[in-house]
Amino acid sequence: MIVIMERRASDDQIQQVVKRVEELGFRAHLSRGEERTIVGVIGDERPLSIESLEVLDGVERVVPVLHPFKLASRDFKPDRTVIDVDGVRIGGDEIVVMAGPCAVESREQLLETAWAVKEAGAKVLRGGAFKPRTSPYTFQGLGIAALELLGEASETVGLPIVSEVMSASDIEAVSKYAEILQLGARNMQNYSLLHDVGKTTKPVLLKRGMSSTIHEWLMSAEYILSNRNYNVMLCERGIRTFETATRFTLDINAIAVAKQLTHLPIIIDPSHGTGKANLVPSAAKAAVAAGADGLIIEVHPNPDRALSDGAQSLRPEAFQKLMAELRQIASAVGRQM
After folding, report:
1. Residue 210 to residue 197: CA distance in whole angstroms
2. 117 has pLDDT over 80
């Protein structure tokens, strides 16, 4: 349930409500909006009576939250969440594009790509250090060496980094170099890992599992939020269906559905969603038109020589052309890039 405070409730009254919630054995989460402060009550609410909180000074009303994802819901936070990543605001009026190679292969490859995507207008550099692959015999990433290269590229080019965390043991190392921790589709329901990244203050990009429903996706976000890391972005990257013409089926519906259910920013990955470079532009444009807050796109200077996912990677010149086209669509739907 949520406790909606009166418009003029004092800080002391708000803290008294938080104190009472915690005395009753629940966890209190604050959401401060432009007009009101909401206190989220997290835990098994069955033994809790609404009246025990409604009588407290400064409380306007207590409302049950029907969705199982309490903190991710718009009931808890009606205003959209905007996450600040080194001055890049994700979830606001600007559509943010993250771009770069699927995997870091070399210093030359990374820097060439980083300069190209920045020049085209990308605000965040993506790059994989630890690569979860279907086959154990394919390229698994350069590991720590890749993180060090990402750190160098960030300082040289001036873009923050997003890179994937595959296990709890990777969190400290990835956090040293990356401003955004990515949790891949295969780890969406790795609950111990969700708990661990929730205990950090780093923004998290949570990819939807390839066979997961939207509600399951939001419940995974809830694990992170419940540990008081409120900087969560949801990433739709395609789901597995009967269709074989594309690598996955990019669920554009998920943008509109998620926007109704949650205040969290929605990012779209048209590269994994289609698996084909010639389909990425169309999917990216559709995502912007549908209301996505950002895109994460794979770019490689020589896709035919890429060690990972070359077939879905755009060449720098194709990425630059796409960015120009996306700006027109963003403007048409009242957004900017």
Report:
1. 21
2. yes
